[in-house]
Amino acid sequence: MKVLTTGLGWNELQPGGLNRYFVDYNRALREHGHAELGLVVADPGMKLETSLNVANTVDYGQGSLLARIRSVRKFTLEALESFRPDVFNPHFALYASMISRQALPEHIPIVTHFHGPWAMESKIEEGGRSPLFREARYLLKKQVEQVTYRRSDSFIVLSEYFRDILTDHYGVDRRKIHIIPGAVEHDRFKPHSDRDGLRTRLGIRTDQRLLFCARRIVKRMGIDRLIEAMRMVADHYPEALLFIAGDGPMRSEYERRIDILGLSGQVKMLGRVSNEELVEWYQAADYSIVPTITLEGFGLVTIESLACGTPVFGTPYGGTKEILSRFTPELLFEEGTSEAIGRKLIDALGGKIALPTREACREHVLGRYTWGSVTSAVTDVFKEAQEKRRREAVHR
């Protein structure tokens, strides 16, 4: 079938779980036999280097948020006319909010991917604002989200955690929600054929243990707690290293904190890394760490690391808890405090925890988180939504 998808940003310019998922998802739809047309927002005038049928919806001079939203609406309406999709499948509520139900042919269902509560995330991450201002912005953004969700025929979420947020915070009927976990490109995210050689090339000595964390550098990701935990780790294992990949508004503050704690020899912030470099860091690491405090809807980084054969330690929240508890619960921190993180890492480095083998990590992903299984499940949701539209049309 023909699927019109609308996302957020282009992953090469704006790294992040949603954007990476969107690119891989559109590729998987094509490989499954669907005709896909994806619409994203990139830098004005930028040509997307991809073989996918993905278009940049922003023209030159369209810098403001309102202009971008209007541009997305214009391109979406044009795509409905020219592409004639069977399903409209938005992945970001803001850019879908301008597409009314009346703008769509009656037979086309809206199947919305819910990647997270945009309003709640913004409220947590926005700093330097008065509580009254943050609350007003939160309510406005939530209203925009609800406009989109009221029109949707069905929803796809990546975890039970996000299903519960949709029902509890947005009032969505649970019967409309389908849980289909994320997936990983397992041909790209895989163990390195010469891991020792890779570590040597990256400057990691044989006596050093490498911990790796790839996160957007914002408050809710818990990076500050992981840095604090490294004080405890360094006291027991001064040769242990923590490399943190990613960028964001809290980066400068966390870099200062590393210096204040005297951890500049143990902790390094890498900034933004390329997709190729990201794979190599997963492959080289002894463990990956996911210290997110809240709103971890799935945890794509968790299965990316596992696919590379590297065990992942994570906080017992959201999607991270769901993935690791079904694999090896021992990989979960007791809680999200720096003390709990530090204690678990010290035990792991000291050999006091029975960790899964690198082979077992990869097998867990191959058995549960592949794009083949995802697209089959998504196709079933599309068909069900189409059939429901047809039945409703008959009874009108």
List the helices and strands and how they pair.
Elements: E1 2-9, H1 17-31, E2 35-41, E3 54-56, H2 65-82, E4 87-90, H3 93-96, E5 111-113, H4 118-125, H5 131-151, E6 154-157, H6 160-170, E7 177-179, H7 195-201, E8 210-214, H8 223-236, E9 241-245, H9 251-260, E10 267-271, H10 275-284, E11 287-290, H11 300-307, E12 312-314, H12 318-325, H13 338-349, H14 358-368, H15 371-394
Parallel strand pairs: 1-2, 1-4, 2-3, 5-6, 6-7, 8-9, 8-11, 9-10, 11-12
Helix pairs in contact: 4-5, 8-13
From the structure above, extract its key features.
14% strand, 15 helices, 4-stranded parallel sheet, alpha/beta, 396 residues, 2 domains, Rossmann fold
User: What is the first-to-last residue Cα distance?
Assistant: 25 Å
Strand order of the largest sheet: 10-9-8-11-12
- For this structure, what is the CATH homologous superfamily of the largest domain? Glycogen Phosphorylase B
Number of helices: 15
Secondary structure tally: strands: 12
SSE-based structural type: alpha/beta
Task: Let me know the largest β-sheet.
Answer: 5 strands, parallel
